[in-house]
Amino acid sequence: MLVPAKEMLQKAKAGHYAVGQFNINNLEWTKAILQTAQELQSPVILGVSEGAGKYMCGYKTVVGMVNGMLEEMNITVPVALHLDHGTYEGCYKCIEAGFSSVMFDGSHYPIDENVAKTTELVQVCRDKGLSIEAEVGAIGGEEDGVIGMGECADPNECKAIADLGVDMLAAGIGNIHGKYPENWPGLSFETLAAVQEKTGDMPLVLHGGTGIPDDQIKKAIHLGVAKINVNTECQLVFAEATRKYIEAGKDLQGKGFDPRKLLAPGTEAIKAKVKEKMELFGSVGKAND
Ligand code: 13P
């Protein structure tokens, strides 16, 4: 059964580790992440962006697929199904479809409007038993080929949003989605420490997990990050493994064109990457804590 992310993140924050949010794109992705979480006895969050939700034929399809897998694969570790960077409308759709967690990304609204919309959604999620993430300070990334540097959130704004009763808070600390540019100065631990001081026990979320050096990840966890989002890195290893298979001409040998064979190396690569991240984040063996 799907669970909200609240409890697993509170435990992670108290235990000084982080739970990975791995974004899903299709059946292979979902299966690979769930298998790895079960093998390693780690809690896990499956992230679904609005684009990926559309690609997978809508949120109801995603909920059906994930719930089916939890049952058929005998998954016993805590699993949350979470809308990633949701719009106001997207949050309502996922709440209705059966997600166990949503992120309302109101970071592009003026703070007053972010507060108003977040307040409303917090109440709805509470009533229905979902967890909710909010964001302060836009997290940059590549847009139209231009890579923007990540913003740093205002710690007072973070406190204002945290006080609305959200279960986890994403604060921009110089992190961005996708690959980091050569001249990226690194995470702003000064901002993170200030946000942590203002928000206390609130589990903090680090977006843009791809390409952040391991020592910076560890320091971020030490400073209160309890959820780390990873997407691009799984896509990169999937593409690389699939390219190698094709370039080696394996799809031309025997039944190598069978999608179950063609997609197997990429799926294995995702499993290895998720394992590496769970070990780094410290969530291995924490499923039953
Ligand atoms: P990356 O694609 O950089 O790993 O970021 C993932 C993310 O933050 C999803 O919200």
Which percent range describes the beta-strand content? 15-25%
Low-pLDDT stretches are: none
Level-1 CATH class name: Alpha Beta
**Distance from first to last alpha carbon:** 17 Å
**Global geometry:** globular
Give the strand tally: 10
Arithmetic mean of pLDDT: 95
Structural class: alpha/beta
* Overall tally of structural domains: 1
Level-2 CATH architecture: Alpha-Beta Barrel
Distinct small-molecule ligands in the complex:
1,3-dihydroxyacetonephosphate
Rg of Cα set: 18 Å
Largest sheet: 8 strands, parallel, barrel
Q: What is the fourth-level CATH superfamily?
A: Aldolase class I
Name the helix and strand elements from N-terminus to C-terminus, one letter apiece: HEHEHHEHEHEEEHEHEHEHHH
